[in-house]
Amino acid sequence: MKFTLLNLLTVSLVTFAVISPDLLVLAVVWDKHMDLVENQYLVSPGKTVSGEHQSVSYINTATESSQPANQINYSYADLTEPLMTFEAEAILLKITLGVLFFLPLFIWSLILIHQKYMVYRASIYQKKVEFLERMWQQSM
User: Fold this and answer.
1) Where are the domains of the chain?
2) Which pLDDT tens digit goes with each residue over 31-40?
């Protein structure tokens, strides 16, 4: 039992050592992404954004009478709606990190269970062979 616990701790530490730099980079990139998303939605419909080389207005200038009846009219507000809320993204990130951390442990435990099962099956097979050998020796 000591060895399996030691193996479990070893696998956990090695997994954490391998994944931790990736998690660090993911956290930095995710933080930058969240800053970008927050700043992206500061521009609201109807405002004008001016830069060095451009001036873009987000006002919808098309009228409903000029649109055909079967065409759908999308406004800027429809395009800037976030697909997920920040809370949902945070929950998704936690689930992803949990899977990344626990998946190697789960695979290791499956391998350990399979090895134990194979040892059990080998012992059953060996007992059957011994029984058949005894039966054969008695029949001679």
Assistant:
1) 2-41+82-139
2) 888 878 777 7
Distance CA 19, CA 23 (A): 6
93, 30 Cβ separation under 8 angstroms: yes
What's residue 35's pLDDT? 79
> Are 105 and 11 contacting, i.e. CB atoms less than 8 angstroms apart?
yes
Query: 109: closest CA among 34, 3, 8?
Result: 8
- Residue position matching structure tokens 């009228």: 63
Residue count of the chain, please give it. Answer: 140
Identify the three-state secondary structure at position 56.
Answer: strand
Average pLDDT estimate for 88-99: 85
Q: Is the pLDDT of residue 63 over 60?
A: no
